[in-house]
Design a protein that fits this description.
Layout (H helix, E strand, L loop, with lengths): L11 H4 L60 H15 L5 E5 L14 E4 L5 H11 L4 E7 H7 L1 H10 L4 E6 L29 H4 L5 H6 L6 E6 L3 H19 L5 E6 L3 H4 L3 H15 L3 E5 L15 H4 L22 E9 L4 H14 L3 E8 L7 E9 L13 E4 L2 H7 L7 E6 L12 E6 L1 H8 L5 H13 L4 H11 L3 H22 L12
Parallel strand pairs: 1-2, 1-3, 3-4, 4-6, 5-6, 8-11, 11-12, 12-13
Antiparallel strand pairs: 5-7, 8-10, 9-10
Length: 526
């Protein structure tokens, strides 16, 4: 009996997953090598280990090396494990994209070795929708907490579910704002105290807790909606099955799947982990009953799918335009990417100039992005935009250090000149540079664009003069493409004629005044 191991008290489900080999002793032979390399010194064969869905090392900030991301007893770690096991069993690791918003759920990207996208508070369903529609062959998971999904993100989750987006949403409900200090959440129980409801939640004042599973199940489009709990081992196994099923539904292209997970939050609740799990079962489940609220194939009318159209078709780019015109030589793009910042006042055509550039880039077959920024007072307020033209896919539309700055006024010149990369280009709308302006290590060209445009008949065309100067100085896009874009966008014939002349005038100024008559600056640039 010395070598016998009693397992009668082990849960059958656990017992079935554990293989025991004869324990070693001084008199017993070594363990059979056929058992494998996962046999420990005490004779147990390793069956369970960390999922390959997780990173080998969980990175932490330098000052928090000895602090875990999640509190002791937190349910997020359990949910992570269940999701990882399901993805591993289904073979979906290389196809999965995790979308994590603000809150404790944001830490998911420290753990899951899959595609990870972090988004703004509450916006995970909207971002997941865009990712899934762009990459329909991927498994897209929106991983959210109750303060995120049921408060600031209510509109996003309701409309994503109502559209039947083929994504999977895991909703961790612990009835409190965990990361920000324990404020009342939309799911806080009646009578439950929080930092913002010190007398307990009162329906007459704060309303009743939201039942998100029931709310989404009342819609027509969702395919699968279930609520589970992390209160004990039995319910954790049910949660495991629900998580796997939700992923299978997305894998099979059935529709929208949603799993609400009642989870303990011991630290914010002020309870030890065991007591917190008991509180989930005894207090939360009466308010949020565990149930499968929806499990059926949604009835979507046939022939109602959105049309799949090419970019050229959407933009109405015909075969005789830009790069699609086979009768003309293709413009040579001697760059990998060009980053341009255009800045000035509202009303100077700053944003329009950026839009014209990306339209031109698309017609020449480039990847493009346009990111506008302006204050509440659009007219006469500060405005700028970022434009990226690239031969490769663009990771972010935000430009920190532009190759080219187009400054339509002195304020923009002084504010953004220092951001330009060394050896870059600054085009300034002015007859000369300000006397006290210190030129950075960049080619600075002063262009009296407003004066030129005024002589042509309209000062509003100053941005087109600058556009012509930009095209001539950088040679990033073909002037002919610019003309075709203007002809399509400008409907008034008199204004179109001024724009044609303005475009040519900007190019001519760079060719004759800047290149031929340039005067060297102290930094060596013309």
């Amino acid at each position: 009996m010395a070598n016998e191991i009693v397992t009668s008290g082990v849960d059958p489900e656990v017992k079935s997953e554990i293989k025991l080999s004869e324990a070693k002793s001084e008199d017993s032979p070594a363990v059979d090598p056929k058992v494998g390399d996962n046999v420990s010194d005490n004779g147990y064969e390793l069956v369970h280990s960390k999922s390959p869905l997780f990173y080998d090392l969980y990175e932490r900030k330098t000052e928090l090396q000895h602090q875990t991301h999640y509190c002791p007893g937190c349910g997020h770690g359990v949910v992570h494990k269940l999701i990882a096991e399901a993805l591993q069993e289904l073979g979906l690791q290389d196809k999965t994209i995790f979308v994590s918003p603000v809150g404790c759920s944001v830490f998911a990207y420290y753990y899951f070795d899959v595609g990870n996208v972090q988004v703004a508070h509450g916006r995970a369903p909207a971002a997941a929708t865009a990712i899934k529609r762009s990459c329909p062959d991927k498994i897209v998971i929106s991983y959210q907490g109750d303060g995120d999904l049921a408060a600031i993100g209510t509109a996003e989750i309701v409309h994503a579910a109502n559209r039947g987006e083929k994504i999977t949403v895991f909703f961790v409900n612990n009835a409190i704002y965990g990361m920000t200090g324990g404020q009342m959440a939309p799911t806080t129980l009646v009578g439950q105290k929080s930092t913002t409801s010190p007398w307990g939640r009162r329906p007459s004042n704060e309303g009743f807790p939201l039942h998100m599973a029931e709310l989404l199940a009342s819609l027509e489009a969702p395919a699968y909606v279930e609520r589970v709990a992390l209160s004990d081992n039995k319910n954790i196994m049910k949660a495991r099955r629900a998580i796997r099923k939700a992923l299978e539904i997305q894998r099979d292209g059935t529709g929208f799947s949603f799993v609400e997970i009642l989870s303990p939050c011991p630290t914010i609740w002020g309870k030890d982990p065991v007591e917190a799990r008991r509180w989930v079962l005894e207090k939360m489940t009466p308010t949020f009953p565990l149930n499968v609220f929806r499990d059926r194939q949604p009835e979507i009318p046939a022939g109602n799918e959105p049309p799949q159209r090419s970019v050229a078709d959407v933009l109405e780019i015909t075969s005789n335009e830009g790069a699609h015109d086979t009768s003309k030589p293709k413009h040579a793009h001697r760059f990998r990417d060009v980053k341009i910042k255009i800045a000035g006042l509202g009303g100077q055509g700053v944003l329009l100039m950026g839009q014209l550039l990306i339209e031109m880039g698309m017609r020449e077959g480039l990847e493009v992005s346009w990111l506008p920024s302006y204050g509440p007072e659009m007219r006469s307020g500060s405005a700028h935009c970022h434009v990226c033209l690239s031969k490769e896919r663009i990771g972010s539309p935000l430009i920190s250090h532009p190759d080219v700055l187009v400054a339509m006024n002195e304020f923009s010149l002084r504010k953004f000149a220092h951001e330009v990369v060394s050896g870059g280009i600054i085009l300034y709308n002015g007859g000369s540079l300000p006397a006290d302006f210190t030129a950075p290590e960049a080619q600075v060209v002063a262009i009296p664009a407003a004066e030129i445009a005024d002589k042509l008949g309209s000062t509003k065309a100053a941005n087109i003069v600058m556009l012509g100067a930009l095209l001539e100085d950088t040679e990033c896009l073909a002037p002919g493409t610019a003309l075709s874009v203007l002809e399509d966008k400008v409907k008034k014939l008199d204004l179109l004629e001024i724009d044609r002349k303005a475009l040519a005038a900007g190019r001519l100024f760079i060719e004759e005044q800047a290149h031929i008559g340039a005067v060297s600056q102290p930094d060596g640039f013309a």
